[in-house]
Amino acid sequence: MLKGLVKSTLATKRIAKYNRMVNAKASAYDKWQKTIEKNPVIQAEAPVQYETGENGELIPHKLPEPKVKVVPYAKVWEMTDAKNDENTVYIFVSPKGKLTKRAGEVIKQYFIAHPEHNVVYADEDEIGSGGKFIHPFFKPDWSPDSYLNAFYIGSLFACRSKTVHDAIPEYDNAVKMLGGTANKKNSPEQVGLEASLLSADVLFCMLAIHERAFAKRTGTELPIGHIREVLFHRNAGQDVFYGRSFHNSRHMLLKPVTVSIIIPSKDHPEVFQQCLNSIIETTKDAGITYDIVVIDNGSSASNRVKYGVYASRAPRKNGLTKINYIYKLQEFNFSAMCNQGARSSTGEYLLFLNDDIEAVKEGWLTELISQAQLKHVGAVGAKLIYPKTDLIQHAGIANVRRGPVHKLQKMHDNKSHYFGYNRGIHNMIGVTAACLLISRRKFNDVGGFPEELKVAFNDVDFCYSIFEKGYYNVCCNHTYLLHHESLTRGLDNLDPKKMERLASEGEILMKRHSHLYNKDPFYSPHLTEDETISAIIPREDYTPVEDIPYMSPVLHEKGIKGAREDQCLRVGCEYNASMDNWLYGVNTAENLEGYYLKGYSFVIGSDNAIYDKKLLLRLVERYEDGAGPVGPEVYSFTPYIWYRPDIRVRLQDQVNVDLTGYKLKIKKGELKPGFYQIGMLAIDRTSRLKLINWVPNILHVKN
After folding, report:
1. Under 8 Å between Cβ of 235 and 144
2. Cα separation, 522 vs 419, whole angstroms
3. pTM of structure
4. Strands 626-629 and 690-701, how do they pair?
5. Which domain holds residue 184?
6. Per-residue pLDDT tens over the stretch 372-402
7. Where do the Glycosyltransferase 2-like domain residues begin and end (predicted)?
8. 175 in a domain, yes or no?
């Protein structure tokens, strides 16, 4: 009884301490934002312009600083009569909240620093109880197709006065088309506040049209600016989209089209048949004529017969004209197979489809084509759902610190995530080639799929190249298909050989697109950058990696005494390489900053508040089929504790898993060169229990 009382007392103290830490870390955004608002605004250097003097000499002079004027959305219609406003910046703002104190100066300095931009918008959040700032909306950079589906611009935007006056005639015409007039009697203000909010949306649209923001770009620069700072605090409960949120809608084709559907497949004839039948039964738009090309790189003789039978027996209806089955014994190279299919077809549009895709919604192909027909749009994908669930497999690709990831993977689609990310139409840096549609002309413009990337990242590289050509990639999250990829499919990071191949192809990807390292115009850097965090949430920790202290190892020559290996201690390793690569990119050859590891760890079925964690490393020898420890020596480190609300959301049946994240920095020279396996030690501070688990991840320490 006494032993149980002591343990209960210790547990109570640990849990109280744990809760204090969680409360402190859970308020990280509010503290971070309030700190920013106290900081002085960085002053921009005014650009220099040159005038030609009387003798032909060039005379430099700086442009004067613009004046700033705030216009409520309810007064937008009055801009028709605005005068004497040369060199003025107008900030149009919602009446349902307030600008930050530094908003005007930040916007003014932005326009000084960016003469190429005439229109800009910014991020925003919500005022919670007690004045706490909550629910920040960290918006994407200019996303024309997202904007056409939803007014994601939200509560404020700004522009130069000249641009306003240039766009006003079209604004007046648009307001009249919507049933209002430009005169005061029937102005939006007179017919209600909601109409005035719509009027602001219309004005922004006309400004965007004036800036050719719905056209193909000439490079990677975007035509409308975005200030990645919260400059507006919405009133509690206020709809950020002001009535025009991301939504499902039906679109029409601009003209009849021909499509070639390319399906790589090997030894999956029954899976292919399901895919084929689903395409035929859900494609009924009279404006679509299509053929199917099956690329088989080595099926068995019996399966080849089945492919032929299924292809010949498929009914030629609903636009299907023919099925071309191409067999060629060759190594698996997804890129080469897709390119072969493109060369062997004639459709105006190319749809690359995995054989384990099943179409279930009539009209899905029409929706994809309706986006791909737009001149500025490149690759078009769709939301993919795991069968017999509402779990998301794909809702667009985001490019985070370690490369491309499927955000929202295995999250439930029965609710809207992060301001409608899984609803409506969104611009993305990329989409998966499990379902990817593009016009043949644009496909040829980028040279097809990169054949040096045989297995992984080929679709991502393809999408990056499309973006670099000036097109906008789109994911249609207002429609979906089923993807029969297994929910329990083995991960590449559980196989050393696959891990090496994945790392090698990831390196090739980022070398080919080094300017995109840790950059994604359509995914804010203020959102979580970890590829294993499916949820789209603000960054869990605003402490820069540079400010986390280095930790020295403790050597245990005979291993960890009294500890037992147990799979109930789960360990995830999300990064384990040099600090230089983390900070500066994959092309960094030097290792001056040491090493960095990060991930998460928790004990299944236990209260995680009672455990202290030590990250472990042990030297291993590498074999043909894996690796093994050199000896009993183990190094332990005390990691930095990292707040992980995403783990709490995903593991709602586990106790106190908010602080399961870890980060660790190791100075260069602390460990002798070699390969180190990564593990974790969990120490129960209410008993003598010690748990260890090792994962396949290897840290390579170099000279």
Report:
1. no
2. 14
3. 0.88
4. unpaired
5. 48-234
6. 999 999 999 999 999 999 999 999 999 987 7
7. 260-425
8. yes
